[in-house]
Amino acid sequence: MGLLFVAIQVNREWIVKYPALRGRAMETLLIFALALIVSMLLAIPGQPVRLLGVEILAVGIIYGLGVIAANRKTKEGSPNARLNRLLSYTTPALLSAVLTLFSGAMLIAGQVSALYWLTAAMIFALSGGVASAWLFLMGTSH
Prior knowledge:
- The protein has helices at 2-10, 12-17, 19-42, 49-75, 81-90, 92-108, 114-140.
- The chain is an all-alpha fold.
């Protein structure tokens, strides 16, 4: 995540010119932030399962809205329009949002097995983060 901040800073003027790059940078940061925040919530000792579910659900809602906003920006003036269109409908970021919301709802219902779904959500998030970072860095090479 730190190298992504450096890449954004180094290419700041280029990113400002192209809305698609701003959207891709936003989505990539959100993806890695989701994995970090969920990991921190899971590390809180002695937390009731239902409270964890509420926290995960809240993070999932905020993350999902952020991903939708980032996808809208990414579509504007995209140099890789076809690839970006495909990813906006089948994106691992969107799938991780859905799985995170599902996991939060299951935890609120007291289903501890939701942690398996949450693990899948984080796998999709991290793989999507790597793909999104690659697309972002390829878009900033000028």
